[in-house]
# Entry
Amino acid sequence: MHTQWWLATLGRTVIWARLRVREAGTAEVFDSDGNTLTYDSEDSARAALMDAEFVALDGLDADDARTRGFLLDELAPPQADDDERLRAQMVSKLPSHH
# Structure
């Protein structure tokens, strides 16, 4: 299973989404509300994320990050042993720059 992290930003708040592509070619998105949404393909999952103004973390460069008001180094996808614990970390607030 292939995992990609996507994010949307609102000021200094980062909203994460986890996209997983299964071997069968179907995809699932674990969202910040703790829902797992199933899609028939990776393309349709990516399209849904883009419609919601999410961007792929691995597609971001330093300029993209700066445009959004943060540094690339500040972004680390949430990590947890299970989805229940992960859900609590799917929205994070970055420290303010002074």
Q: What stands out?
A: The mean pLDDT is 93.
